[in-house]
Each structure stands twice: as structure tokens, then as C-alpha cells.
Amino acid sequence: MESKFIRETRCFKVSRVFPTDVNNHNTLFGGKLMSYIDDIASISVAKLCRSSAVTASTDSVDFLYPIRPSDAVSLESFITHTGTSSMEVFVKVICEDMNSGTRKIAATAFLTFVALDENNRPTPVPQVIPETEEEKKLFETAEYRTQLRKHRREESKKFADYLLSTYPWE
Questions:
Q1: What region holds the HotDog ACOT-type domain (predicted)?
Q2: Do residues 45 and 79 lie in contact, with contact meaning Cβ atoms separated by under 8 Å?
């Protein structure tokens, strides 16, 4: 399977923040932003693997600055690293005040997707090649995040063993 440049997976989305998009703090709903993040990440994934894929985990969403109704929100996503069938996707969220032009990194996120074949089985994906300094840094640090992700998943499974699956009304 041929490798692809990370730039081939890069996607962009820009949206204006409207009054119906904000919470009681007059900032963008976190869930709305998370939906945008999963959506754009899935497009980067499709650009790489050209097959069906599922979100395996949202490893982190770090909300760094509030996004207000006077802002436009821009998302950029790209694949930072691949395993055999898994893909790590980085999403950068930039808010831009439409009145002043001031921009900030408002949030960052890492997600993991798994490519599936026609039988919904994991299928191999191309490896990615970083070119820019940003891509290289994310690529070089991906293995560390992969190990953290595996450890967290193991801990989550152990924790789930202690949780009840009955409903309170039963």
C-alpha cells in the first residue's frame, strides 16, 4: 500500500457562531464544537483510507479559550499517524473575533478512527508522511499518545467491570 503525505488528509471548516449555537455563558456549546470536530476528523480519515471507518475514541478535546457569538470558528484536521488499521487525527480549532480580527487557538483534539472493509473488519490503511514542522512534531510524538491511549483503554475496561448495567428503576 502506498504512503500518503499528511497534507493529502488536511481538511478545513469555517463556521460563524450564531445565538442558537451558544450556551447560558454566551459561548459556543461544547457539544456543538465536538460534533464539528468528529465531522471534520471523519473527512480526513476518508481522504486517507477511502473506505468506511469508525471513531474508536476521542482521546482528548481541550477547550483552551471560549468561542463567542462575535467569532468565526475554523477547524483544521489531518491524520498525524497510522497503525495497521487505525488513524490518529489531530483537529485544531481557531476562533477569530470578526470585529477585531484577533485569532486564538481555542481548542485542540485527538481522535482515533479504525478503517473497516466491506465486512466491517479492520482493514489496512496507508502510512502518512509528515512534511511541515507542525506535522513532524505531531508525527514524532504520536507513539507516546498511542501508549497513553492503550493504557487508558485498559483502565477503562477494568473500571467498566465495576459499573452496574441495570437501570435505577429495575
A1: 7-119
A2: yes
C-beta separation of 28 from 120 below 8 A: no
95, 65 in Cβ contact below 8 A? yes
Ramachandran assignment for 4, one of left (phi > 0), alpha (psi -120 to 50 degrees), beta (any other): beta
User: Comparing C-alpha atoms, which of 149, 59, 61, 55 is closest to residue 105?
Assistant: 61
Provide the whole-model pTM. Answer: 0.92
In the chain, where the domains are located = 4-160
CATH topology assigned to domain 4-160? Thiol Ester Dehydrase; Chain A (3.10.129)
Residue type, 73: V
User: pLDDT tens-digit profile of 26-55?
Assistant: 999 999 999 999 999 999 999 999 999 999
